[in-house]
Amino acid sequence: NYTESIDPFLEAISNDTENPYAYSNLALSLFMTGEMKQGLIYLEQAEALGTDQPAYIARNKAVYHHLNLEPEKAEAFFREAFSLDPDMDALHYYYALFQKDIGNEKEFLKHLNLSEKQGDSEPAYFKSQTN
């Protein structure tokens, strides 16, 4: 649950203000709860701190643009994330949601299944919410 994850990420940041992963994960949680402006601030902080896993930043930027109804920008950042780390956790899941929202049912199902095969927990949660 994205709402429940916000406080632990805020606590992680208060314990280590130089942790780009906490900022990036907090940004994603905020995006998924509709707090776009606040999430973008944390994502920019994560990017400024630097990371050895830039695919996470690209994925989270893609989610941001997806939820802001900017499909061209979302697609570009998803492509960047896939080129950097095609096996990154939840990348296929968020790409599946994007594909669903732009009306591409075939790609939605393909990436939802790939996410499930990778062991991501999100597809099971998604399926439980849509049944």
The computed structural class is mainly alpha
Largest sheet: none
Mean pLDDT: 92
Unreliable stretches covering 5 or more consecutive residues: none
| Percentage of residues in helical conformation | over 70%
Radius of gyration: 14 Å
Task: Please give a structural write-up.
- The chain has 131 residues and is mainly α.
- It is built from 8 helices and no strands.
- The chain has helices at residues 2-15, 20-32, 36-49, 54-67, 71-84, 91-101, 105-117, 122-130.
- It is globular, with a radius of gyration of 14 Å.
- It starts with a helix and ends with a helix.
Topology:
Blueprint: H1 2-15, H2 20-32, H3 36-49, H4 54-67, H5 71-84, H6 91-101, H7 105-117, H8 122-130
List keywords for this structure.
8 helices, 78% helix, 131 residues, mainly alpha
Short description:
The protein has helices at 2-15, 20-32, 36-49, 54-67, 71-84, 91-101, 105-117, 122-130.
